[in-house]
Specification:
elongated; mainly alpha
């Protein structure tokens, strides 16, 4: 039995309630494509940008939300977008194009 104290996982930073996360059309489309199951490369192709641009867009979102990895980004976006805009839905065209 391990007697060491357990460390709790870090909590997500909470922005001020008056602070809304404003996303541009490219960011919303990227999130929709990733939600539909696209890779960074296929999402980049659909957006007409380079894979590096997709990486930079994701890093920018991570920095804005104060998270360290893509899992935390997904959780933060999911929580915020559900609360602010209702459930997130990916575009059916995105899902169908992936299949």
């Amino acid at each position: 039995m391990d007697d060491r104290p357990r460390r709790l996982p870090p909590t997500m930073p909470r922005p001020a309630s008056s602070q809304r996360l404003v996303l541009d059309e490219h960011q919303l489309r990227l999130i929709s494509l990733l939600l539909a199951g696209h890779t960074d490369v296929s999402a980049a192709h659909r957006l007409g940008v380079s894979p590096r641009t997709v990486t930079n867009m994701l890093r920018s979102l991570m920095n804005r939300l104060g998270v360290d990895n893509r899992f935390q980004l997904g959780a933060a976006l999911g929580t915020r977008m559900w609360c602010e805009n209702g459930p997130i839905r990916s575009d059916r065209r995105d899902r169908d194009a992936f299949a």
